[in-house]
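User: Here's a chain of 729 residues. Predict its fold as tokens.
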Amino acid sequence: MKRVIIAAIVLCLLTATGAYAADDGYTNPISKGFADTFADPVILRGQDGLWYAYGTSDPLREGTGEFHRIPIAKSADLADWTYVGDALTPDALPSYAAQGSMFWAPDVRYLDGEYVMYFTVTDTTTSAKKGDYGIGAATAPTPAGPWTPSDRLVVEPRAAGDSFWNTIDPAQLTDVDGKKYLYFGGYFGGLWVTELSADGLRATGEPTRVAIDNKFEGSHVIRRDGYYYLFASSANCCAGPTTGYAVFAGRSTSPRGPFTDADGLRLDVSRAGGTPVIAPNGNKWIGTGHNGLLTDLSGQDWLVYHAIDRADPFLDEPYGVNERPMLIDRLDWIDGWPTVRAGAGASERSEAGPVVRAAVQDGFTAGDLARNWRGTEGWSVADGRLRGQGELTAKKSVPADRRVEADLRAEKGSPGLRVADGVTVRMAEDKLVAEAYGKRAEAALPAGFDSGTWHNLAVELRGRTLTAEVSEARLGEQLAAVRLETARPARGQIGVVADGGPVEADNVSAARLHRPVTRATPTPEPGRKIFAEEFGGPLAADWDWVRENQAAKVTDGALSWPVEGTDLVGAANRASVLLRDAPEGDYVVETKVTLDLGEDAIRNYQQAGLVAYAGDDDFARLSTVSIWNTRQVEYGRELSFAGKLSYGGTIIGAPAATTWLRLAHRVDRATGEHEFRAASSRDGKAWTWGGVWTFGKDTAPRIGLIAHGGAQPAVPALFDYLRIHRADR
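Assistant: Prediction complete.
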């Protein structure tokens, strides 16, 4: 009976407001209804009020072998999705795409009245060589298409000796001055930004590198509170059961950078920083990366990304296409930095979903204005849109803390929103103007701003603080933003206002403003010390060597270990490992290691650090390491899967010449698995916590130290200590 009543209520809402019903929650992956894999996803809300998702051109379902050309799906509630079709059809492929080219990592925007899709072309006609990546584009009148490819590449392939830089993973941003930018690139060549032509279809001027090569890919940029936030993914996207892909962020006061992380470390230097946004957290999901962002009707941000189920990492046969379905989770902003679920990472159980149904919500499909609105004289509905002049006020009340938004356009005059009694925000000629009880705040709209094309106006009122922004597609591309402190708390009905000429409006909503999460999920803390090796004398008898290195000596209060020209990765298993038994229960193991790897020079893959070891082919190592021109803290995992060895890593902060490393162990009470979460520090005080690797419940991982990866140039790793503490949380 309860389900029938709820269904009846939902039906009434649909009839009264033209709104789409939303489920109360969602369970990842949200793409499961139409696809087994849907990599590199982005989502935007169309002018029709539906949500559209776009992904990389893999087969959607297991067993089909059918590669798609940028598959599209749509949803009314961000939880249940339906496949729409492919953006690029066989009879409308870009002329610059070579036969057999793949199309990766789309980014879709609403620019100047049309939808523009940017995508990677993996093989172009500009050369006879493979791997000459470029960025293409297509335009469409609706989010579902039909899509018409542009007549030439937006960004041409960029030669790098006998090969080509990775000109991949596009992400567009329109700035407050109206200039359009495109971010692109990844790993080989780094991340770049270039200005675009007015129509967004041509790269112009000289590009600027914003992140070091061999560290990041999958850029996505938004503007928030005066900063430009660069989201970028790092580590291997596609290592099957050991995929450590993760998302990091930096911010800048300029769209061209430099971007720095929360510790002030730049992203474009050898020891590149990056504040963690999401990383594997020990549940079923690994490879959590390549993100987009969206905002629900309450103002809550959400991260859309792909991930891999570590128990089912491949689409069909092992070591073929990685199965990367689409996930979504709440994105919180804590102390000015983005983090998924306050740092908890990907969800695997049912979660409270995005707000897609509001107290006031109208897509103007019903046509009967008088039922839900007051002051309807001079207003009408046609073709699913509101048209009129004056002030139209909603009959339903909304909470005092509210988010009010609408899609608006007007050939002349000042379209806007009534946010409360005596509080309005308008796009007035060349300004965004907020007024409340005699107070006024304004911000310039971009030069050439065309109010005759659709723009989204979103206003949030929390207590006495009003913030408003204008964008084209609600994707963090602020064209103007204002803030106003009101003289008194605001109350009253919301509405649509139009001065000086008629306005068109659509997708009007007013919802209870989201309650921001302001405290991060606690990270492990070392408690009571239960063991300490300070290397003040000979090693204790309870240390064991696997393939003892006679050159490793305790001297001057440290273990001096010349970095070996060997490696644990692979089947050779020649590297030395210094081990001891781990305690029972939850604990934190820590070391301080000095390894002078310099900067920029290529010294692959010299490294030293901690290891959790259940065998030569079943280990996780946390080390400060040289990876081509970069210096990183890598947390790698090797295991056997489907008869082969698999290795992959995730990134845990940035190293210094001396770096502190931690592994926090816990036993999952539900599965019995051993979870090891990693952290690094540059000073032994401020710690960056990152990803988790797991070991089977039937294993007994030991803990210890390693120093290997490359013997030239000769360099010693100096370990000051190894300490074990009980874990406090």
